[in-house]
């Protein structure tokens, strides 16, 4: 078997830490990068190194350059008095990309899962109640994925916020989806979330 230089093997090992990237994919990526110019490699290396300076917003948990993210700094976002609670930063980005929501966010960083030791303290769920009171939130939208853990998390938050209107986003059949190919949970949620025409 051919022995590759340590610099290549170490880079492959680092790339393999990325979710969904196995050894073969990492090796393919690194072998492609070996052909890059010194300038391109230096730019790539510098960009990755800058990740250590990324902060999380003190209010919502989104990535930021400062103590507050761009969303939390925008005064007009506070006007709807609505807070959207999401599981991950990726979920926040997906909702933002839809351009259908203009309020504030709160990133949980996961869902309740006692089997994995994730309880209300780990998710800092009390922070949601603090924010709701601090900035006079009237509506909370729970945009948490449908699962046993997600449902439990939503129930916990609903109990935590008794004096606020709490809603959960609808789930169901995707646009262009065919019923015959959907799983039973998706169909069940679609039937639960039906509305009058």
Name some characteristics of this structure.
single chain; 197 residues; alpha/beta; Dna Topoisomerase Vi A Subunit, Chain: A, domain 2; 4-stranded parallel sheet; globular
Strand and helix layout:
Layout (H helix, E strand, L loop, with lengths): L5 H10 L7 H11 L4 H12 L5 E2 L6 E2 L5 H4 L8 E5 L2 H10 L5 E4 L12 H4 L2 H9 L4 E5 L4 H13 L4 E4 L15 H9 L5
Parallel strand pairs: 3-4, 3-5, 5-6
Antiparallel strand pairs: 1-2
Strands of the largest sheet, in order across it? 4-3-5-6
Largest sheet: 4 strands, parallel
Q: Roughly what percent helix?
A: 40-55%
State the end-to-end distance: 66 Å
What's the quick description here?
This protein has helices at residues 6-15, 23-33, 38-49, 70-73, 89-98, 120-123, 126-134, 148-160, 184-192, and strands at 55-56, 63-64, 82-86, 104-107, 139-143, 165-168.
């Amino acid at each position: 078997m051919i022995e590759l230089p340590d610099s290549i093997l170490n880079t492959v090992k680092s790339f393999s830490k990325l979710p969904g990237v196995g050894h073969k994919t990492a090796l393919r990526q690194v072998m492609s990068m070996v052909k890059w110019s010194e300038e391109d490699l230096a730019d790539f290396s510098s960009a990755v190194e800058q990740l250590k300076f990324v902060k999380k917003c003190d209010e919502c948990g989104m990535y930021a350059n400062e103590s507050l993210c761009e969303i939390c700094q925008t005064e007009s976002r506070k006007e709807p008095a609505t807070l959207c609670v999401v599981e991950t930063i990726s979920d926040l980005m997906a909702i933002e990309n839809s351009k259908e929501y203009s309020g504030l966010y709160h990133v949980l960083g996961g869902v309740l899962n006692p089997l994995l030791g994730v309880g209300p303290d780990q998710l800092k769920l009390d922070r949601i109640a603090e924010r709701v009171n601090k900035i006079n939130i009237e509506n909370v939208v729970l945009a948490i994925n449908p699962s046993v853990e997600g449902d439990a998390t939503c129930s916990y938050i609903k109990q935590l916020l008794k004096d606020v209107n709490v809603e959960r986003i609808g789930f169901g059949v995707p646009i262009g989806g065919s019923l015959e190919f959907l799983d039973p949970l998706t169909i069940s949620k679609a039937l639960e979330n039906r509305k009058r025409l």
